[in-house]
Amino acid sequence: MGDQEHVSLIKASTNASQYFVDSYYAALNQRRNTIASFYMAPAAMPGTNLPSISFNGTQIPTAAAMQTLFEQQIPQSHYEVQCYDCHVVNPNYVIEGSHVSPTKTGKNITILVAVSGYVKYGKPKEAQPRAFSESFLLVPNPAAITGQQRMKNVKEWVIQTQTFRIVV
Q1: What's the distance, Cα to Cα, between the start and end of the chain in Å?
Q2: Do 76 and 123 form a contact (C-beta atoms < 8 A)?
Q3: 3-state secondary structure (DSSP) of residue 67
Q4: C-alpha span between 145 and 141 (Å, rounded)
Q5: Closest CA to 59 of 51, 47, 71
Q6: What's the pLDDT score for residue 125?
């Protein structure tokens, strides 16, 4: 991989990560009914247990179950991201049905995103902030790459693997 291709991948992963972090935590705070849309569809990798979601040590079986958890069991929350970092994990991720060149577009990469910050559960003025650490493996959304769905707001990157932990 040449220097220009490497720079393109870094730029693509940085832009994707920033957009993801901003929109995902806004959804947790204010639009919980959209949480499931941030995860890869199980049909994207049949025969696997993906997406893989671990929330504070508990395995969550599906994206819909994660959304239900936030809608029905977790009190109002306010996530405040303090920092995040990202790294290209696989620069040549193959999306079935796609003819996109990974090194030219940066659209066929997988991205590791590490996030840390504070969360308050409950009424904002009464809740105590708790530190959290979270990691995601983002993959290209096949529907966005292959054009299978022409829906407004289809996400370019979706969660394949997620691990969340309250730190203190």
Answers
A1: 42
A2: yes
A3: helix
A4: 6
A5: 51
A6: 83
**In whole angstroms, what is the distance from residue 22 CA to residue 11 CA?**
17
Of 29, 34, 33, 32, residue with least CA distance to 124 = 29
**Cβ-proximal residues to 1 (8 Å cutoff; 6+ apart), any chain:** 9, 91, 103
> Pick from 59, 70, 56, 60: which is nearest to 24 by CA?
70
DSSP 32: G
Q: In tens digits, what is the pLDDT along the chain, a chain of 168 residues?
A: 567 777 888 888 999 999 999 999 999 999 999 999 999 987 666 667 789 999 999 999 999 999 999 999 999 999 999 999 999 998 888 766 555 555 556 678 899 999 999 999 998 788 999 999 999 999 988 777 655 555 556 788 999 999 999 997
Distance, CA of 64 to CA of 77 (rounded, Å): 19
Q: Are 142 and 156 in contact (CB under 8 A)?
A: no
Contact 121, 131 (CB under 8 A): no
User: By the 8 A CB rule, do 81 and 25 touch?
Assistant: yes
Side-chain half-sphere exposure of 25, counting CA atoms within 13 A: 24
Residue 62, amino acid: T
Contact 17, 27 (CB under 8 A): no
